[in-house]
Amino acid sequence: MYRKILVALENGPADRTLLPHIEQLARLLKSSLHLVHVADGWAARHFEKLKLAESEEMKADRDYLETAAAKLRAAGLEVTEELALGDPPSEILRVAADAQCDLIAMTSHGHRLIGDIIHGSTIDAVRHKALVPLLVVRAAA
């Protein structure tokens, strides 16, 4: 059913809720996983245009992805990882298409009312434009 699952990681506590769900799902469906984190700091958003060096935040994000991927591989799963740069919703959708993923998995933190009104949310932007199903796991409080 789902051959390749894009797993959008935040590099934060919410990932501890998402990864066990996805590990179990991938095992049941014999799916491969494509882990992605979108670095969206100033250096990441201007990296290509200004030919910048990788920031410490970007290096930490890359290490985080590699560590998460290594743990899943050690559990017997097929895993690739990718550090994307820029706008999280746009990059999640781009990576899902480029990597030919047939499911996108993300966490939700619930509504933050004012913040969601002003900035929107990554999930809302992804769900409105995704061409594949979206699995949303509520992050533990």
Descriptive notes:
With 141 residues, this protein is of the alpha/beta class. The chain has a single domain, classed as HUPs (Rossmann fold, 3-Layer(aba) Sandwich). It contains six helices and five strands. Strands 3-2-1-4-5 form a five-stranded parallel sheet, sandwiched between helices. Strand 1, helix 1 (15-29) and strand 2 form a beta-alpha-beta unit. Helix 4 runs parallel beside helix 6 (122-129). The mean pLDDT is 88.
Descriptors for this entry?
141 residues; alpha/beta; Rossmann fold; 5-stranded parallel beta sheet
What percent strand?
15-25%
Gyration radius from CA atoms, angstroms:
15 Å
Instruction: Provide the number of structural domains.
Output: 1
Task: Name the average pLDDT.
Answer: 88
* SSE run: EHEHHEHEHHE
Spatial order of strands in the largest sheet: 3-2-1-4-5
Q: Largest sheet, described in full? A: 5 strands, parallel
Find the count of extended strands (DSSP E, 2+ residues). Answer: 5
C-alpha end-to-end distance: 31 Å
Tally of helical runs: 6
Give the gist of this structure:
This protein has 141 residues and is an alpha/beta fold. The chain is 48% helix and 22% strand. Helix 1 links the parallel strand 1 and strand 2.
Give the helix/strand layout:
Layout: E1 4-8, H1 15-29, E2 32-39, H2 42-50, H3 56-74, E3 79-85, H4 88-98, E4 103-108, H5 114-119, H6 122-129, E5 134-138
Parallel strand pairs: 1-2, 1-4, 2-3, 4-5
Helix pairs in contact: 4-6
